[in-house]
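User: Before I run my own analysis I want an independent prediction to cross-check against. Here's the chain; please return only the structure tokens and, at the end, one sentence I can use as a sanity check.
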Amino acid sequence: MFGAAGATISTAGDPHRFFAALLGGQLLRPAEQVEMFRTVPTENWIAHTGYGLGISSVTLPSGVALWGMGGALFGSWTYAHGTRDGGHVLVADINADWAYGDWHDPIGVFTDLLVAEFD
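Assistant: Structure tokens:
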């Protein structure tokens, strides 16, 4: 039913290194990097976010824009977002059973972490 979802065995350090390299321009050619950062608003889903080619953006209340991706499956959520240059990345693995968000705000806990780290 969920294919490879949850099949990766990793630590928070692995997505941290990956997103730092991806955002920092070490994995894609410049033209591909430009295309990746073209996003469309995720209206009627998660406020203040956009989605592009395998990456999402979130704009914090202060106006800071961050880039990354996340995923969730039955109690386990992992999100990684950072500055566009990849110089500052935050990765969090949380037990979603403790999350207060619902499908209108599924990343409420992680957004609070982003605000604390980047605002």
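Sanity check: The chain has a mean pLDDT of 84.
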